[in-house]
Design goal:
16% strand; 334 residues; two-stranded antiparallel sheet; 10 helices; six-stranded parallel beta sheet; single chain; alpha/beta; 8 strands
């Protein structure tokens, strides 16, 4: 499906925040976002985001912008505060569209927007007995909100939108993990609702990041079910460990989908060997048209604001490496 959509140098959206930055200080956040835009352009990224600086974590665009959820005092091992759904959600206004408009004023590149997927939110916030009958019902309500936001973002000129569902890849194992409140089939059905737009310009891509790492063993049939179940244009896939499962994920992807390979590990400071990275990409190129591809880090650098995975300098070095890999693959045609 080779075409001219060339957001080759990608990243997941969240960046390491400046020290001491508080979301309670709008002026400081505005300044930090402006500096982050300049930082991304200096690094020659072909996507521009607000770094998630205005938010507590990667879910906050939705959780802070809709009714029906309650924040608890519990914190999981991933550093995420637990929220629970007490009623079906209703949007209180745009979720990311206003920030995207601000970004558009700061750069000639159309901004990228990243949202948590409705299936992920439903699976992690549903609790029986709190006013919502099922995780599927909760997911469908969230899907309508996310779908409306995607349509608004597209109408305001956003060309690349990413939905994060870190749970999906674990369910592709030959021995799938416990899906919790939402089955694999229900998760696919819910996220499919969010990306099924009535009209989507050819110049727009809606992507899904189904997880930060591939399972130890991949069930090929379930991988094909994943891609068939969610009609996303672009799949953001882990590709930083050199495993057979990572390669199988790419192999299973239909030829009519774009892909972005997470070629550097965003969780460790050590830089990857570029020859090793290029060898992995060359292998993928034996069965996929690299003109449909892009490269990125394996995940966001600070999906939880208070728990960055690397230092700002290590993040910079990783992003520079992604840019170098992209130029090895595609030259200077961005």
């Amino acid at each position: 499906m080779a075409d001219t959509f060339n957001y080759r140098i990608d990243h997941h959206g969240s960046l390491v925040r400046p020290a001491g930055l508080s979301t309670a200080d709008p002026e400081a956040v505005d300044t930090a976002v402006r500096e982050a835009v300049a930082y991304q352009r200096k690094l020659r990224s072909t996507v521009v985001t607000d770094g998630d600086f205005p938010r507590e974590d990667f879910r906050s665009a939705v959780l802070d912008g809709v009714s029906g959820f309650r924040r608890t005092d519990e914190v999981g091992p991933d550093g995420l505060v637990r929220w629970v759904a007490e009623a079906l959600p209703k949007a209180n206004g745009p979720l990311l569209a206003d920030w995207s408009a601000k970004l558009a004023e700061l750069t000639v590149i159309a901004p990228k927007a990243t949202l948590p997927s409705p299936a992920y939110l439903a699976a992690t916030t549903f609790q029986p007995g709190l006013g919502v009958s099922s995780a599927r019902e909760l997911g469908e309500a969230l899907a309508e909100i996310v779908r409306a936001e995607i349509e608004l973002l597209v109408s305001r000129g956003v060309r690349l939108i990413q939905l994060d569902n870190p749970l999906l890849l674990a369910q592709l194992s030959t021995d799938p993990a416990d899906p919790g409140a939402l089955s694999f089939a229900d998760a696919l059905a819910v996220d499919a609702l969010a990306v099924r737009l009535d009209e989507c310009p050819e110049s727009v891509r809606i992507g899904v990041a189904p997880g930060w790492s591939a399972p130890a063993e991949l069930d090929r049939a379930r991988a094909e079910q994943l891609y068939a179940g969610i009609a996303a244009d672009r799949w953001i896939l882990p590709f930083d460990q050199g495993t057979q499962a990572e390669l199988d994920l790419v192999k299973a992807l239909p030829d009519d989908r774009d892909f972005c390979l997470g070629v550097v590990d965003a969780t460790v400071p050590e830089l990857e060997d570029i020859d090793t990275v290029m060898s992995r990409i060359d292998t993928a190129g034996e069965f996929k048209d690299l003109e449909d591809g892009a490269v990125s880090p394996s995940r966001g650098f600070a999906d939880v604001a208070s728990r960055p995975l690397l230092t700002a300098e290590d993040q910079r070095r990783k992003l520079v490496l992604v840019e170098t890999v992209a130029r090895y693959c595609w030259g200077n045609e961005f």
